[in-house]
Amino acid sequence: MKFTDGLWLVRDGISINGAVQNYAVEQTTEGLTAITQTTPITGRAATLNSTLLTVKFHSPLPGVVGIKIIHHEGVQERGPVFELTKGTGDHVKIEENEQETALISGGLRVVIRKGEQWAVDFYRGNERITGSGYKSMAYITDQDGNTFMREELDIGVGEFVYGLGERFTAFVKNGQVVDIWNKDGGTSSEQAYKNIPFYVTSKGYGVFVNHPELVSYEIASEKVKKAQFSVAGESLEYFVIEGPTIKEVISKYTSLTGKPALPPAWTFGLWLTTSFTTDYDEATVNSFVDGMAERDLPLHVFHFDCFWMREYQWTDFQWDERVFPDPQGMLKRLKEKGLKICVWINSYIGQRSPLFEEGRKNGYLIKKPNGDVYQTDLWQAGMGIVDFTNPAACEWYAGYLRDLVDMGVDSFKTDFGERIPTDVVYFDGSDPQKMHNYYTQLYNKVVFEVLEEKLGKNEAAVFARSATAGGQQFPVHWGGDCYADYESMAESLRGGLSLGLSGFGFWSHDIGGFENTAPAHVFKRWLAFGLLSSHSRLHGSSSYRVPWAYDDEAVDVTRFFTKLKCSLMPYLYDVAGQAAEHGWASMRAMVMEFPEDPTCEVLDRQYMLGDSLLVAPIFQENGDVKYYLPAGRWTHLLSGETVQGGAWRKETHDFFSLPLYVRENSLLALGSVDNRPDYDFADGAKFGLYSLADGTSATATVRDMTGAVELTVKAERKGNTVSVTAEGSGKAFTLALKDLGAIASVNGAAQVDETTVKVDAGSPSVSFTLTLK
């Protein structure tokens, strides 16, 4: 939201009271409180009829400092609020001298100047990373009496801003106006389903605005050297989070707002759906499922989209008996084929649904101020919206979900949750402005907790479209409605990378696009991208997404990349474990893994899948691709070709290939199974040791189905000697050298050929040594 008219003037009707002078700084039990004046005090008379801002500094976690700017403290706080970790503050240190007062938390030092000109500076060691200067903190009113609180933080020369949720606009947010307000706008506009008031910068720090309502950002837009954010009301709270790396910023941010849950391994397999408005019954579903099996296409999840329920009655949680006369039997038959089942739901209750009257009578639906049920015809005729601030409504909704799980459903696609009105009243008195974005958190939490209750920890997964800060705790999320073209494929990737830089560990998208039907070449290129994503789903709007509907080669491409993903599961599930433990995205923007490489700061058409695999999707029919390899040696996973990085490359690939490179000094774990994602990853694991440099080491971790570490293998090179240790399962595995030459001799294991060693099952602790030729 813009308040100024260029650098010098203020917009008509706007009054800005900005912090100009420090009046006092006091130590409190929580940290520091500063009083700042918005006009210079030249004498006693100047203290009258003036505005003061109270600025409170505290630290919930090391390296994280909260700043709350308050105009009038007498405003009644109405929820909802983000559920944040609250530390003891024992780690905080206060230092003071004649020039400044400082609060120190971990590697972050916040300095409040005592001089005549107000300033707050944030330091990492002796490096100033950002700050709030003269008049940056401000209380603002407009001509209608609306009030706002604003902050402006400095953006340095060459500093880039990322994140703010799943945004489909330019990957680097500098120059953009961003409103944190969930909307159902598809992937081709500035609107977003998942708006997160958190950004991270190339300087290795992040800023989280602790407000679930509308937060308006001007990122180097209104003032080109400032990241400005504002909210309506009388106070503004934000947290500065120091890294010093982007990965460490995200780890601390998710320690504050919640770590992603670990999805079950089966969710990483291929999902196939009925699509949205297509016609289908059990025979149609079986034709899809059997068709996949007949073509040797591994399929792991089948999803029933909206029309599993009768039209006009969404959501009633009842199978349309005209189409599915024996739903429980059908699900049993599908599960006997080795499939997991997902069904579509939303939190809206159409007027023709039997649940509407239940919800109306019991007060389970959001109401208008006059007490009527809020209703609209947008989406479902006469629909109401479940009020998840009412515990009884949550239990009512959850009860229907439990019945479906008992019937055989394993997951729910929690669609919608963005079109939440603000002219309404909630059961618990929540502020409807704040509930607009926060609603999705309550919605997904109810559904996720039902699955966790019924199926067990690490067995729950939703397929969600909307989110707010903290939503990463309830994976998986997908990108929403995209078109079936290369442009939408690219914008989807931008959205996923931005979401990954906003604390979300797992992300998916509709392979081939949702709207319209892709040409076969788009579908095949998207298959490679989709099956080298965290989660992989074939889904569309008005046409089926079975591969043979495109051409015969699409069948072969689906088979190739699905089997490749299944074989990568030992590696991918460890990457998933890192997401759950640290908050790091499975699909990582290049800047996240290579923060010191300036070329990586702007890359948005390639990504790292975990820390060892580089993926560059192809966005051209002819297979042309231009991508960047950071410095070091890289080995193509499919061809085995090794090249030197630190340069751009141009290539042409067929549909069975794309730039897919293993980073040097990597120990990559592959599995012995290529037709399913959930198996014993340690049994028969195949480790590839890639371009291990003298004096370096590489480690691979293999987890079991609970996410616990089952096997750890470490290789260390000194000259022509490679020492290998393995701790854990005691199961047989192989180790192959990649770009290391041939093996001259082996001590402690069996040599298979010139580059491969086999370790037989036996002791849980194994060590052996290789001598290179």
Automatic annotation (TrEMBL):
It catalyses: Hydrolysis of terminal, non-reducing alpha-D-xylose residues with release of alpha-D-xylose. Residues 260-574 form the Glycoside hydrolase family 31 TIM barrel domain. GO terms for biological process: carbohydrate metabolic process. Keywords: Glycosidase, Hydrolase. InterPro entries: Alpha-glycosidase_related, Gal_mutarotase_sf_dom, GH, Glyco_hydro_31_C, Glyco_hydro_31_N_dom, Glyco_hydro_31_TIM, Glyco_hydro_b. One of its GO terms (molecular function) is carbohydrate binding. Residues 586-667 form the Glycosyl hydrolase family 31 C-terminal domain. It is an enzyme of class 3 (hydrolase). It holds the Pfam family Gal_mutarotas_2. The keyword Nucleotidyltransferase does not apply. Its EC number is 3.2.1.177. Belongs to the glycosyl hydrolase 31 family. This is alpha-D-xyloside xylohydrolase. The lineage of its organism: Bacteria, Bacillati, Bacillota, Bacilli, Bacillales.
